[in-house]
């Protein structure tokens, strides 16, 4: 029977990745050191580098995993609801739930991890993700204007940026201790400015 070369990995990669995700989510990219990561992941530095590459590569994988597991509610809401307003309403309501869920850091990793980040590639990558989310909202609004579901003079760019600002603000409010009910009330006010036909 042939034996595989090298020592077998002595840790569960998925579990280690989840622990890294939580560390980055809680502290942000810059404030989370490699020693913080190895401690929370329960692995040595050589194992971290062998399994995930450097800190930046690990963070990129964490951001992808976050998007799949925790951060996809907005994209889903816009895709599944019949109008941009309905998608935005669902997105804001789900943000109130997701950003205050017990047992994990509050707010959004993609928003929080960029705070005080001096690594330009990481900062740019996170900015591109946030801007892509706003562009997705704008596209949906433009489609509704074209379909007559929103007034023809709707400023799709401004409305999308407003919605993005609300989501980003809700994330920070959650980190500052706002409750789910407080964020839900904020979502209601945010929806009041949406135009109607």
TrEMBL record:
This is TetR/AcrR family transcriptional regulator. Residues 10-70 form the HTH tetR-type domain. The keyword Zinc does not apply. It comes from the Bacteria. It comes from Streptomyces marokkonensis. Gene3D superfamilies: Homeodomain-like, Tetracycline Repressor, domain 2. Residues 33-52 bind DNA. SUPFAM superfamilies: Homeodomain-like, Tetracyclin repressor-like, C-terminal domain. Keywords: DNA-binding, Transcription, Transcription regulation.
